[in-house]
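User: Please run a holo structure prediction.
Assistant: Happy to. Please share the sequence and the ligand.
User: Here you go; the ligand is uridine-diphosphate-N-acetylglucosamine.
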Amino acid sequence: MEQYVIKGGTPLVGEVEISGAKNAALAILAAAIMTDETVTIENLPNVRDINVLLDAMEGIGANIERIDTHRVKINGSMIHDLTVAYEYIKKIRASYYLLGALLGKYRRAEVALPGGCDIGSRPIDLHLKGFRALGAKVDIQHGLITASADKLIGSHIYLDKVSVGATINIMMAASMAEGKTIIENAAKEPHVVDVANFLNSMGANIRGAGTDVIRIVGVSRLHRTEYSIIPDQIEAGTFMFAAAATKGDVTVKNVIPKHLEATTAKLLEIGCEVEELDDAVRVVASKPLCHTQVTTLPYPGFPTDMQPQMSAVLAISGGTSTVTESIFENRFKYVDELTRMGAQIKVESNIAIITGVGGYMGARVSAPDLRAGAALVIAGLAADGITTVDDIYYIERGYEEFETKLSELGAQIEKVSSEKELQKFKLKIS
Ligand code: UD1
């Protein structure tokens, strides 16, 4: 079992290059099969979730050619199977994007119903409501969702809740429906815009992505394209909080600073200096950090995917902070782990009340999910002594070469897979 072992206490200093956005890439890869022509995708993050989705796509007959670690060619002309097995969906929920992509292109898709998830119940009723509004018949039997239609007809769809997944899935299917679709109360996340730009580069007609009303005029076919994925705002924000927690000075490169505004605002509030450059941000934490209040919200609000990392910083910042989670119901699983490292956090319903302590003590902890895992690494980097983080496969779902990028900033972190390697690390740093 692989673990991260971290000797904390070294300020992170230097520059780090951010990878392509995982959540944009997952939807873009799925959408790439909507044409029979070859699509080239660049700036693909080399993380586990992406590789699982590519396997799922190969499983239904798509031709996947890896040009190198960050570029792939996809050809969906040989797809012979419209059923995506549970084997993939249980590893990665976002394979449900194949539902919208296959339904749009072939008017039929069968995808296993995503199971329970570690950050709370995550229904997909809005995705299905959208497909039904486009004229598809949607059935759920024996854990399999079947969506099919003779014709998909554009429609007016109001999303009761702002949902990234539903917005993207409906946008994909509607791109190849007959006539005009309007999605109201759409998600505005940067990756929704990236997927719309990608589909438009294939010949789709989507307007308004990035606002809460998206208008789509369906087209009968999509064509080849070459497309480069936007930088990952959550990976970037994670390094920004790691810089803050370790009292460091880090320039996070290959980012779109506008996408990071909510994170930047919170770092400024707690006492960091943040300098915005053209495609980079520099975070300097030279003064003691202080408390703040934060509530997670859909973009442009503070992202739920940054909530655990922010809490990891607030737990060692002066005063009492509150963190309100308004998107997912079970996103405080890391609190017990941070408590084992000395944090003082009380969770009441969807609010974490954090009383800042002087610092963390190294401990053995386990990553409960992807972003919570990143938060524990941040705590370990700031801690006094040695921290080991178990279950790092969660972290590897979404962070490319996390330990290498951190080491290049001066962190003392290694991935180990045996007690012997752990002891070797301890000897090396003593
Ligand atoms: C995506 C991101 C995830 C991020 C989340 C919120 C991907 C692959 N994942 O997840 O990292 O944390 O956005 O920014 O991009 N909801 C319903 N019914 C639905 C769909 C959603 O009630 O049919 C609810 C959810 O339970 C949640 C809220 O809507 O409370 C937002 O979820 P949504 O934006 O759909 O999240 P995901 O797309 O699953």
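The first strand starts at residue 3 and ends at 7.
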